[in-house]
Amino acid sequence: MTTAQPTSPAAGMRLRELVFGAACAAAVRAAAQLRLADALQDAPTSTEELAAALNTEVRPLRRLLRTLSCYDIFAETGNDRWTHTEMSRLLREDTPNSLRYISLWCTEPWTWQVWPRLDEAVRSGRKVFPDVFGKEFFDYLHDGAGASAEVFNKAMTQSSKQSAEDFAAYVDLTGVSSVVDIGGGQGHVIASLLERDPKLRGTLLDLPKVVANADPRLRPGGPLADRAQLLPGDCREDVPVRADLYIIKNILEWDDESTRLTLRNVIAAASPGARVIVIENLVDDSPSMRFTTAMDLLLLLNVGGAKHSKESLVQAMTAAGLELGDIQPINAYLHAFEASVPV
Question: N or C: which terminus of the chain has fewer CB atoms within 10 Å of its end residue's CB?
Fold first, then answer.
C-alpha cells in the first residue's frame, strides 16, 4: 500500500491558480477586445474615467482590472487609479512588438471548444478539430470564420514581422546572392533580408492565395519588387527554385510526412553546398517552454501536428540527407538549425 506524501499549502494554492488559468486568458482577451490598454494613457487613470472612455460599467471593469493586476498586467496606484505595466503596454495597438492580436488569436472562441477534449487527443494521438466543427481547421478558418480568420492573419503578420527582423539581424549573408523562403507566408523575412542587402535577390514560395497577399514591398510597384520573385506552389510537391540559401521557418510541424517531403524537395532543388536554415520553436532546451509546449498541444488539437524537440528536428534533417551545422537561438522563442546540402 502506497502512503500519500504530504503536500505544501503553496503547492495547493499554485494548482488552484493553474486550474483557473482560463480566467486569466479570458481576462486578457477581454482587455484586448475592449482596447483597455489603448484607453489607458501614460498618466494614472481612474476606473470611472476608463469606464466612460470604453462605455462599460464601472464595477465589472474594476473587477477585470483587479484580476489582470494579479498577473502584472496593469497596476493599481491607489485611490482606484490604474497605470500601465510592461505587459499591459504590449496589449496596446501602437506599441512596438504589440501582442494584442496574438492575445486575441490564442483565445479565439474555437479554442474554448477544443481544449476540453485534450484527453481524447492524448488517447488517440489524433486531432479533434474536425470532430468538433465538421471540417479541417484551415477550411473552417477560411470558409466559415471570417472574424477569426482576420484575427489570425493580423496575428501571424504581427508575429512574422517581429521574428523577421530578429532573423535578419542574426543571419550571415556572406557569399549569398540568392535566397528563397519556403512556405514564407507574406514574405516578411525575404523583405527584411532584401532591405538589409541591396545586392540580394529573393524568392517567396507559398500557396497561391498566400503569395497573392504578399508584403506590398515585394509586389509589383513595391520598392523591392525588382529583386523579388513571388512563386505560388506547395513545398510538399515541389521546390522549383535554386538558391544559395533556403529558409524553412515554422512549417515543419504539421506531420512527419510533410516534413520529409519538404526537406527532400529542397535537397532535390538545391546545388551541392547550398545552405539550409530551419527555424523552429522548440519544446525543450528553450527559455520559452511554457509557451512552446502550449502551442504544441494546440497543434495536436487543431491540425494533428507537433512542435519539435532539438533531437527530433536534428533527426529529421539528417535523415533527409542534410549536413547539420550550428544550432543557435535567434530570440527567446526561436532556434536556427544551420545545415548544408552535401557536396
Answer: N
